[in-house]
Amino acid sequence: MNIANEVATRSTCDRKHVGAVIVRDKTILSTGYNGSIRGLPHCDEVGHEMENDHCIRTIHAEANAIVQAARNGVQIDNTEIFITASPCYDCFKMIANAGIKIIYYGEFYREERIITHAKELGIELVHLEV
Fold this sequence. Notes:
Layout: H1 2-8, E1 19-24, E2 27-33, E3 35-36, H2 43-46, E4 50-51, E5 54-55, E6 58-59, H3 61-71, E7 80-85, H4 89-98, E8 102-107, H5 113-121, E9 124-127
Parallel strand pairs: 7-8, 8-9
Antiparallel strand pairs: 1-2, 1-7, 3-6, 4-5
């Protein structure tokens, strides 16, 4: 989780700095932080793109970690992910479909239904006090 916190410092959306690290057998496979689409301006450069009280300019940290693994041909089935904040529902769905089996998170971030679905899917959710 310390590494996820460090990765979060690279975030380019000042509304919330989030970092994610995907791990297998204590080996880091991929990292991600929340930031804009590759090649487009970031929130800290041009401001936020707000919709329903959420900044939609950014791609979430866990989604970026999954995309980074895919771009680099890294297989992430049966892995663990450390995230500084629990995933939103859309990111939870990506995590589940990617085959990640354990989600460690720092702060709980508003999405209660991930708890129910994690139990249904056999995905372990672990809150780590930071």
